[in-house]
Structures are given as C-alpha cells and as structure tokens.
Design goal:
Elements lengths: L22 E4 L6 H10 L4 H16 L21 E3 L12 H9 L2 H8 L2 E6 L2 E7 L1 H5 L3 E4 H7 L1 H7 L10 H9 L3 E6 L9 E6 L6 E2 L2 E6 L4 E9 L7 E3 L2 E6 L4 E10 L3 E3 L2 E6 L4 E10 L2 E4 L2 E4 L5 E10 L4 E10 L5 E10 L4 E10 L6 E11 L5 E10 L4 E11 L2 H9 L4 H17 L4 H16 L4
C-alpha cells in the first residue's frame, strides 16, 4: 500500500529561502529629492522621466496616509531602501544569468514554466529585471514584451502616451511614492488583431531586507487582440518591514480581451500596497484572477473602468489571512459606457487570528444605462480567533440597471467535518478538503500549473508552514 504524504512532509521552504544580501548598489534608506534624483541618475534616464519622479515626490509629501483600512504605523520610509541593483545585467539567455540568482528562479520553477507553456517571461530580482525573453514568432507579429526600463529607451513615444494615464500620480499617497521611485517591471504591446495562444509571465522576487520593490507594469492590448498575462510575486521572511508598492496599468482597446492572473505570496513581514487599474474600450473585456497569500498587511483593490459601450469585466479573487496578517482586498468597477457588465466573485479565508476584509466600490454613472453588475463575496473563518468583514460601497446613479450584491460570512461547518471524518478522513484532511472546495471557483480559472501552485499554498497555509 502506498504511504500517504502528510502536509508537514512537504517542502515548506520553496518560497522562504533567501540569498546573501549581495548587491551591486543599494541606495541610502529614506526618501528625499536627492535619493529620487540618484535613482534616475543610476538608471541613466531621460529628463522627462525625472520630471515625473520629482512631481510624484512633491505629491507624496502633500498627501496623507489613508484613514481607513489597516494601521500602517509600522511603515517608516526612513528605514526603507527604495532601490537595490543586483549584481546582474539583463540577459536574454537563461544560462547567462548569475548562478545564485538563476538558482533562485530555478527553485521557483520559472525556467521550467517558460519551456512548457509560456510565450515569454521576465524575471525581476530586487529593483531590476535580470532576465527577459519572448518567442520569435511573437516578435514577427509585432508583439512587444520587454522590461520597463528598456521600453523607456526603445519606445519612448509609446510609453509617454500611456504611462501614468490610467493610474494618475495623485491617485493616493502610495502611488505617488511608486512614481517617485519606480524601477523595473514589464511593458507589453499586442498589435491589432494579434491573439496570443500562450500566456506571458513576469515574476518579481524581493531578496534584500529593509527594502522596497516598485515595479511598473504597462500593458496595451490593441483593437481585436487578446492576451493572458500572469504575474507572480514572492519574498523571503525577514524581521524588519519590507515594502511593495507596484503599479499595473492596463489598456484594453475596442473588441480586445485581456486576462490578468496574479498569485502573490509575499513574506509575512511585507507591507503590500499595490495598485492595479484597467481602462476598457467599446466591446472590450478584462478579467482579473487574483490569489493573495502572504504579506503582513495588504491593501489591494484592482479596478476596471468600463469606458466603452458593451465593455465587460470579471473579477475572481481569493485571500488567505493567517496569524499576524491583515489582508484588506477587494475590487472596484466604474460603469461609464452603456450596456456594460461586471461580475465580481470574491472569497476570503482566515485562521489563527487573521483578518480578511473585502472592500469594494461599484459605481454606475448616469449615462451607463442598461448596465449589469453582480457581486458575490464569501468569507470562511476556520476558528474563533479570526475575523472576516465585508465593506461594500455601491453607487448606482441611474435606474436602468440590473444590480445584485450577496455577502456571506461563516465558520467552517462542524457537521461537514464530522461527515468527512466518518468517511475515514482525519480532521486535518477534512478541513483541507473543505477549504480547497471553497477555493475551487478561483483555482479552476487558472492554468493547470498555477491551480496546482495555489492549492499547494493553501495546504501550506493550513499547515501554518508559510511565513
């Protein structure tokens, strides 16, 4: 009889390993005009980029911290290094990446994923992209997929046209911080009518302690084109706070389609203050698939602006908050065009005193007639120590709409556990089966390899092995 592998026999160090904090350059901690100017100088940027950075710094200093959501008193910018350049230049051949960094991404499965089911991949280590590749057949179709710094140099007019136009500098304090110190990230342009059969993926790994990662992702899917983009994130655990304040800007043109999938597994000393937004034109559609695991505090609310008539968006998300975690996540959608449609499905799990909050905004403007919106959010608490909250804001400004909102929060069913145990499962395995079933609507929307990855993260969270 084959022996059964227990959860505690799994390799729990797949994300929490760390390399020596060995870098080519690490900027002084803190945030000042001199530091911002030095980041720009280190990157040899054109003056128009520095102008944006300095304007953002000025905006950051004027804006206040949010007065709602998790307490952010632990964030002390004077203790954060905003730019860390690894000992590696960007390479387009995997064997040319320095061994220690290459081994990091080998452990995370990035090269294997690229070989088997990705059309292109980018890998960022601390503040810079160290590897980037794209299949030749995509290049021949005019697809652009490169790191953001290269895009600034090689496609300045295209970057200028869209950069900061979806997520403006003044959106909130942490996006202003992002624009002041951003580094790395991805740039994608899919030409008219080009439909990518295989996904692109960017993976972001933060290794250096007491530092921040501020990558910028800018994606343009032109008329009639389609793309699936996958984002992965992780970091080892340190005793001091690390900060992630990235930005994602998505432009989905007429009759275009974009699926944006994210599995985030930051370490539990991370403050994850990320911003993601999409503008969708006529008959376009953007779908978000989001899994939030790890981080000490998260404030993350992807947003779709349904600008064009008949535009659509779907959001499917899950978060898992364990001990010492406060995950404040959700979704925002603004219906601008007529006959627009949004479907929101959010699930949260909390255990060992974790706090999971679903925070949403649905705004249907006066001219968005015949629009439809459906919101469902479910919270599952695995013990008496945990907390789950639902905080929706619904602003419907015309009467010619179909709108529904359903929220359910409950504890794991003792009857269901008893039933499964009566069928031969241990209590631990019974709970795991129930949680995986609860999370299934999210995992089934992911490619097979990422669904397996998400289930592994759930198993590790249930075992208390992450972070």
């Amino acid at each position: 009889m084959m022996s059964k592998t227990r959860l505690d026999e799994l390799n729990t160090n797949i994300y929490d390993f760390k390399n020596k904090d060995d870098y080519a350059y690490k900027i002084d901690k803190g945030l000042s005009k001199e530091i911002v100017e030095e980041i720009s100088r280190q990157k040899n940027e054109p003056s128009w980029v520095l102008d944006i950075r300095l304007k953002a710094l000025e905006t950051y200093n004027k804006l206040n911290l949010p007065t709602w959501g998790p307490n952010l008193d632990e964030l002390k910018m004077e203790e954060i290094a905003t730019y860390v350049r690894p000992k590696a230049d960007i390479k387009d051949k995997w064997e040319d990446v320095p061994t220690e960094i290459k081994d990091t991404f080998e452990k995370l499965g990035i090269p294997k994923a690229e070989r088997e089911y990705l059309a292109g991949v980018g890998a960022q280590y601390d503040s810079e992209v160290v590897y980037h590749s794209i299949k030749d057949e995509l290049l021949s179709q005019g697809v652009i997929y490169t790191d953001f710094d290269s895009a600034i140099r090689e496609y300045p007019d295209l970057v200028k046209e869209y950069f900061s136009k979806c997520v403006p500098i003044f959106d909130h304090k942490f996006i202003a911080l992002h624009y002041a110190v951003f580094s790395g990230g991805s740039f994608v342009y899919v030409p008219k009518g080009v439909k990518l059969e295989m996904p692109l993926q960017s993976y972001f790994r933060l290794n250096s302690p007491e530092s921040g990662q501020f990558e910028h992702t800018l994606i343009i899917v032109d008329e009639g084109a389609s793309l699936h983009f996958i984002e992965g994130c992780s970091a080892p655990k340190y005793n001091k706070v690390n900060l992630h304040a990235g930005c994602v800007e998505l432009f989905v043109k007429e009759n275009a389609y974009l699926r944006y999938s994210t599995i985030e597994n930051w370490s539990k000393n991370m403050l994850n203050l990320n911003t993601k937004k999409a503008i969708v034109e006529q008959n376009g559609q953007v779908d978000w698939i989001s899994g939030s695991f790890g981080s000490h505090i998260s404030m993350l609310y992807p947003m779709s602006i349904l600008k064009g008539d008949n535009s659509k968006t779907e959001y499917t998300g899950i978060s898992f908050a364990g001990k010492n975690q406060n995950l404040d996540t959700g979704f925002k959608v603004v219906h601008v065009g007529k006959n627009t449609s949004s479907v929101v499905s959010s699930k949260s799990i909390s255990k060992n005193g974790g706090i999971a909050t679903y925070r949403s905004l649905v705004r249907i403007l006066p001219n968005a007639t015949n629009s439809k919106c459906s919101v469902t959010c479910d919270g599952l608490m695995l013990d008496d120590l945990s907390r789950s909250d639902t905080i929706p804001v619904n602003d419907v400004q015309n009467s010619d709409v179909e709108f529904s909102h359903e929220a359910k929060v409950g504890k794991i069913s003792e009857k269901a556990i008893f039933y499964l145990m009566s069928r031969g499962l241990s209590e631990e395995d019974a709970k795991a089966m129930i949680v995986r079933g609860f999370a299934n609507p999210v995992s089934k929307e992911l490619p097979m390899e990422y669904a397996v990855e998400m289930n592994r993260l759930i198993n590790l969270e249930l075992e208390g092995a992450i972070g």
